[in-house]
Structures are given as structure tokens and as C-alpha cells.
Amino acid sequence: MSDSSASPFTYRAFISYSHRDRPAADWLHKALETYRVPWRLAGTETARGKIPRRLIPIFRDRDELASSDSLASKVNEALARSGNLIVICSPAAATSRWVNEEVLTYKRLGRGDRIFCLIVSGEPNASDIQGQEAEECFCPALRFKLGPNGLPANERTEPIAADARPGKDGKPDAKLRLIAGLLGLGFDALKQREQHRQLRRMTLIAGIALVVMTVTIVLAVFALVSRHRAVVARHEAVIARQAAVRRQKQAEGLVDFMLGDLNDRLAQVDRLDIMQDVDDKAMKYFQSLPNTDVTLEALAQRAKALEKIGSVRMDRGQLAAALESFRASAHISSRLAASAPGNTARQLAYANTLNYIGYAHWKEGDLEAAEQTFRSSETTLVNSEKFAKTDLPLKFQLAMTINNLGHVHEARGELDAASSSYRKMRSLSQELVAARPKNLEWRN
User: Fold this and answer.
1) What pLDDT sits at residue 249?
2) Which residues contact 344 (CB under 8 A, 6 or more apart)?
3) Pick the residue with more confidence: 203 or 46?
4) What is the pTM of this model?
5) What is the residue-wise DSSP string for 355-383?
6) What digits encode the pLDDT tens for the residues 148-181?
7) Collapsing DSSP states into helix, strand and coil, what is residue 186?
């Protein structure tokens, strides 16, 4: 067995399942082989031997043997070389000939105490209740002890089971119960170690967030100071401007990380307080920057970042703060769009920001402001079609904008106008689907 040279076993465990439960088997196999035992537990001696760092390898019987009278020699050999047997239990598994045979084979090896069950559907011992026999999730070999002839006898047994069903253990705790059994640990001890590990991860992420925020602010200050010094002398201005642009790119790159990956990781650990601080700091940083004497690429990046801040704020229900961010983004993207009427990417970016503003007004209940903003977005997109009639993303954005106008009309009770908007939207959607039939978003 991996991590234990003294063990006679090749595999940490053998997973037995019905082919109907393949999704559960895929999840469990990956969950076990990617699990890292908390380092404080690794090397500890238990009744199962020394605890390893990883639970690898895990053998998975990938398919039932549909045309054989007995288990294939490969499977028999894998069972004999497996330190534990994990049975995924469901009504399909309870009636599976091969799941039952694998359990019997493992029990005949004298390892009945090393069989662990994972319930994914059905009910344990439902076959004892009249009318509910079809819900049984344990196969006969699990429910009864073996007789002298090596077949299930009449004496009942109680399988060791983790319950992944909703409302029971759930997948995370069911996984930990199985791992605790494989390692010879108590469930509470393992779960406590897992909670400590999660706490350390949250603390680390929070620390990284604070460091990134500090570095970003320092870089931003350096950029502003450098730009100010450029005014002193023409020769020094050129050098300082180059340095300021380089530092500003670095700062905005860090801001992109803060608004992207860092925000996503903080959301995973439910640190909304730090997310709020990150977004506020980023917003103040962008407000401090000039909109002149910078590249068009930098302006477009800045507009996109401001739109991201507004989107996060709106998701949190902070509509006034979201509108502030969206308007700051629209102020930049409108200038970019006006400077290049034939650039459909810029027109699309500006129209998309207008739609965000209109949606924020809609959430506030200001239907008049919402309609005006959606109309501006529609006008921008229609004018752009003159330059790019075959631009499908532009046509999709136009369909969504017209759909938004339909919602405004419908909310006012203007059903004829709403119906007209919805028909236009449907017509555009049909054109999109005809152009790309496999695009599920457009088909929906």
C-alpha cells in the first residue's frame, strides 16, 4: 500500500459500484485520491497501521462484467490486494449481481471488518418493510453474515455506512467518515483537524489580501509622485512618465488580480468584509487617476475594472455604490466609443455598461431612468450594426437590450409595447441560433 512499505496491500481501497452510480464513483475516486491527510496526523500509529500522507492508489471497478459467470481474475486479484472495500450503496447496487459478488469475495477473504458503505440513494434495510422493497440500498451480502458454506446466512449484520444523501451526512462529512474509517481514526478527531486546516487557509488568504492591498497602494503612490515630478523639467519628465506608466501598469495589474482571482478566493471562504475593503480601495485608486495622457488600452482596462467593481457591488445589493462605479466606467467607455465609431468592440463595451446602469435603475424601481439608459444602449448597438452587420456578439447584446426594454414596458402595464419588444428579441435570437445552432445560451 502506498506510504507503507510494510503493508501487504497494493491498493488503499477497492470501490465497488453499479454502473448507474458512475457519477458518484467518479466523485468518490477523485475525492479520495486527491485528499491530503492533515500533516499533524500523518505518521501516527493506529489499529490500521501508520497513517499515510495520501490515500493512493484507489482501485475502481469501472464497469460491471455483463457476460461472465464469475468475477474476472483481474478484479479478484485487485480485491485480494486491497486493504479496504468501499461499496457505493443505492437501489441499483442492491440488485447488482457483481456488487454482491464483490462483497462476498471480500468477506470470504476474512476482511468483513474492512468493508465501508457510502449511501447515495435509497434506504437501508427497506426490504424489511412491505411495499418499500424497491428502495433497498444494501445488497444481500452486506445485510447478512456469511454461513459456513461462504454464502449469506440468516443472521443479520449492520454495515458501517456514511450517508451522502441530502439531509443526512452530506458529501463533505460522508467523505470524512469514510477516510476516518480507512485510517482507523475517530470521525470527530479528523473533522476537527480539517476545520483547523480550513481556518489556517482562511487566515493565509486574508493575510495575502492585506499584503496585496498595501503593495498596490504603495505602487499607486509612487506612480502619482513620479507623474508630478515630470512637470519639473522636460528631460526628467520623459523619464518620469515612462517610469510612472510602468508602475501604473503594475498597480493596475495588481488591481485586476484583486478584483478577479482574489475576490473569487475571498468569496469561497466567505470573507465579504475583506472583499468590500478591496473593492473600495480599488475604486478610490481609479478615481485618483487622470483620464488623459494614458494609452487607449489602459483606459479600456480601467473601464472594465470599474464595471467589475459595480457588478460586485450590485450583487451585494449596494445599488448606489454600484451606479457610481458603472457611471465612472461609462464615462471612460463612452469616450473610447466616440473616438472610434467603426470599432465594434468599443461600442459593445459601452453598450454593455449602459445595460448595467439600466438594470441598476430597474432594481431601484426607477423605470423611466432604466428605459432611457436601455434606449441609449439600443441606439449605440443599432448604429454599430452599420459597420458590422455580421457581428454575432453585437447582435446578441442588442437582443438582450430589446428584451430589457420589454421588461420595462411590461412592468408599466404597456403590454402591446412589451409584446413588440419580445417579438423583436425572439427574431434576433432565431437569427443567432440559425448562425450557431450549438450555442446553448442563444438557444435558451
Assistant:
1) 61
2) 384, 387, 388, 391, 394
3) 46
4) 0.46
5) HHHHHHHHHHT-HHHHHHHHHHHHHHHHH
6) 888 888 888 888 889 999 999 899 999 999 998 8
7) coil
